[in-house]
Amino acid sequence: MKIRGKQAICFDIKVFKNLFACTFYDTESEYKEQYEVSKRKNQIQDIIGIFLCPDYIFVGYNSIHYSIPILNFIIENQRTMPYDYKNICSSLYELSQTIITSEDFSDWSKWKHTKHFLTVDLYTMLAASKDRIGLKEAQITSGYEYVTEFRVPYDEEIEEKDIDDLLKYSENEAKSLKHILNKLRPEIELREQLSDEYNLNLMSKDNVSMGLEIVKKKYLERTGQEWGEIKDRMTPVEVMKIGDAIPKFIEFDNPEIKKVISEISELTINVNDKKPFEKRFLLDDIEMSMGMGGLHSIVDCDEIIPKNNEELLYVDVHSMYPSIILQYKIVPPHINANAFLYIFKEIWDERIKADNSGNLTKSMGLKHAMNSIIGNYRVYTSWLYSPTTAATVNIIGQIFILKLAEMLISSGASIKQVNTDGIIFTWKKSDRCGVLTKWEGLTCLRLNVSRFNKMFQYDVNNYLAIYEDGCTAEKGIFSTEQKIGKGMRPKAIATAVVRHFACGEDPEDVIRRITDINYFLTYQKVDKKYRVEYDGQIIQRINRYYASTNGAYLYKCVVDENKHNAVIVHFKDGTYLRVPREQIEFGGPYYDNPSVSHFEYYSGTVKTYDKRDGYENLMKASGVTLANDLRKFKTLPSDINYTYYIAEAKSIIEKIENRQLSLF
Q1: What is the 3-state secondary structure (H, E, C) of 62-89?
Q2: 543 vs 630: CA distance, rounded Å
Q3: Predicted pLDDT of residue 245
Q4: Residues of the domain holding 147
Q5: What is the pLDDT of residue 594?
Q6: Which of 143, 367, 493, 556 has the most CB atoms less than 10 A away?
Q7: Which of 474, 489, 515 is at the close of a domain?
Q8: Domain membership flag for residue 611
Q9: For residues 445 and 401, what is the distance between their CA atoms, to the nearest angstrom?
Q10: Predicted TM-score of the model (pTM)
């Protein structure tokens, strides 16, 4: 793959007290090169030479915050760096530990920002800081074939006999980056185009950061200011009266809404509190929740099919928060409002022009630019930080949606669901009477209108809507699309549910027809304080697997590394525990408990085990078969527990259909 005209090379580094290793993987030729600094060889100059080659752009994972500072340190100190491998490894290990453990960023920041070679960091590109995931989760959720962990701790010296295994592990890491990179090709192309368009390096930016960089560049150009003049400015006011944010021109007739608005108008809140306020009330027999998290309905499972003389509509505000900011000039007090609104309108117009010309890549980038603003009103480290300004935009949006709901109810609509920026409802085809146009005229915002044939909702965050043309809108547990880093429920379950509601198919038939093992996979990652046990063995902390008919149960547990004499006790429900020998011989709690009194153990066999407590079954409904290495599954395995997947799909279906029956 070429990125910005240069050959993309995926790389991975490993740092031990007595070893430094680097793997390079060419994304086009799939040629691999590996170098090391160890007792066996010292190839530090070869590593430096490759990174300084001007024909390459290097693709890493968490490279900005880890690998790049280490590599820049090597490059800048190559002339003075001792040639003895022990001193080289010791220096790099010390820097590695400083990066990992130090709270003082200044200890190593000078090597983070030096630019000796071009890079793309998939870790920072995938998501904003609070949502970032480790490489193993990226491998699993992107469908990479082989997910493994290296068994030697990085804070120990690696033995020479383990170095070749480490290099194989590093090669797998680098190969996985090519796989992930290919999955992200549209995102790479988006960043290439916007980087060229705005003369910025956006290649390692997540969507929000990328959008904010565009806004920042335009703002500085418009005001003539330097970055140093604005980067530390903010409006850190946290306390506000809600009534000050409510538009005075919006008036309500509904008694319940009027009561709610009257009550919250008098509240003075700290917008940075975890829950500054929450108000629950009934609207058209639907329970509503209003708070800083947004406005939404609290709905039960439901099947919504309009009658012959009705239509089922979803109306949402087009770019609601950016529209409110632009239309009502809601800008942080420390920002030059005229300049900011000018460049905001410029971005808005550029996006419309890009849409009209079919430049969807640029349109998407400018959408990220507009959406980045409201989020950064809330970010303490942002030059846009102004939490009460963010709260004002939020409250105005909720008031506008409430007004739309009131107008729809008055026109005869039946509200089915309300969320932050839209409403789903049914009404008679003859009852439209221009209510949507009236609302647009009142608020100066624009509505998008979608028509559904039917809708099935589990709750406000999980629903399936079927458009008039048969296409589907899938959210939450109904989603059949797997995105990198967004969890991984077995797609077989969602596919069966969607096919049942959309096409009337039997979920069991759907699931049994699936021939792709990826549809049955899920994964679990446990915290570092736990270990994972499978079939009596401690295995890696993150595991991909499927429900199987003959697999063992997967547990997390706490391990005491001190050794204890014990036997494995197998209970009649299929579970087992390591039990101290004396509790078997002298009648301990395992023997006396009637529910587990029948057990079999390896008679007379007493072994030394690490002590394990706090067992928690990670998939209680079924045993599992590990699928960390998909290369082993050339065909669909015969031990898939179809009963489990069918039961999970039917459980969702029955909750919705039984809820519908209970209404009659």
Answers
A1: CHHHHHHHHHHHHHHCCCCCCCCHHHHH
A2: 12
A3: 96
A4: 2-184
A5: 40
A6: 493
A7: 474
A8: no
A9: 11
A10: 0.89
